[in-house]
């Protein structure tokens, strides 16, 4: 593992159990899918980040979750699966942590009354900051995606994070600057 912050790399650790965050969204599966995979616009359910890719979301393509102005990159990964409108998976690594990449899977299934949306995390290093962040992020993402699709507005938590985004840049570590996370570098992770 390579350190991104210049700190000594953490030793390889065991992985946490697979985590599931599930919600039923009262909307057609295509609506949920199209909201989930938007690129180049602010996504309140992804903490106000913008998903950017050099060639779209396709297996093997790098992706980066960046601030609206593009100055900061919070999460990077590589698309593993892209099967509209049912399944999307990518590796995921926080740019401010030295933890190895984990995997995030989004599964969508048509059910009575709408779409069952499941966010699954796996291969998350146990006992790390990444594990804690992903455990907090799962309910945030599912709750805000549901609210946004059903009402056109995210929850208050999603609105607050999106509004505070420009201010948070003042407190973001230098390692998160987008100039440190080219798509070529992300491909090599």
How do the helices and strands line up, and which of them pair or pack?
Blueprint: E1 19-25, H1 29-36, E2 42-43, E3 49-52, E4 62-66, E5 73-83, E6 87-94, E7 102-111, E8 114-122, H2 129-151, H3 156-168, H4 183-187
Antiparallel strand pairs: 1-8, 2-3, 3-4, 4-5, 5-6, 6-7, 7-8
How does this model look, in words?
There is one protein chain. This protein has 189 residues and is an alpha+beta fold. The protein is 26% helix and 30% strand. The protein has 4 helices and 8 strands, in the order βαβββββββααα. The protein has an 8-stranded antiparallel sheet. A hairpin with a 7-residue loop joins strand 6 and strand 7 (102-111). The longest helix is centred in the last third of the chain and has 23 residues, at 129-151. The chain is globular. 36% of the residues are buried. Mean pLDDT is 91; it is low at 1-5.
């Amino acid at each position: 593992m390579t350190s991104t912050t210049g700190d000594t790399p953490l030793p390889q650790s065991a992985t946490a159990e697979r985590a599931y965050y599930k919600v039923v969204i009262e909307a057609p599966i295509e609506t949920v899918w199209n909201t989930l995979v938007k690129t180049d616009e602010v996504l309140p359910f992804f903490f106000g980040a913008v998903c950017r890719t050099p060639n779209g979301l396709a297996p093997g393509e790098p992706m980066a979750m960046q601030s609206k102005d593009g100055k900061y990159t919070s999460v990077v990964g590589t698309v593993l699966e892209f099967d509209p409108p049912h399944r999307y998976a990518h590796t995921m690594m926080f740019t401010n942590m030295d933890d190895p990449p984990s995997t995030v899977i989004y599964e969508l299934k048509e059910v009575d009354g709408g779409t069952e949306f499941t966010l699954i995390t796996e291969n998350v290093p146990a006992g790390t900051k990444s594990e804690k962040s992903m455990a907090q992020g799962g309910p945030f993402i599912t709750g805000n995606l549901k609210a946004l699709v059903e009402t056109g507005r995210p929850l208050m938590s999603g609105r607050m994070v999106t509004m505070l985004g420009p201010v948070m840049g003042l407190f973001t570590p230098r390692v998160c600057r987008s100039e440190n996370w080219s798509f070529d570098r992300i491909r090599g992770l």
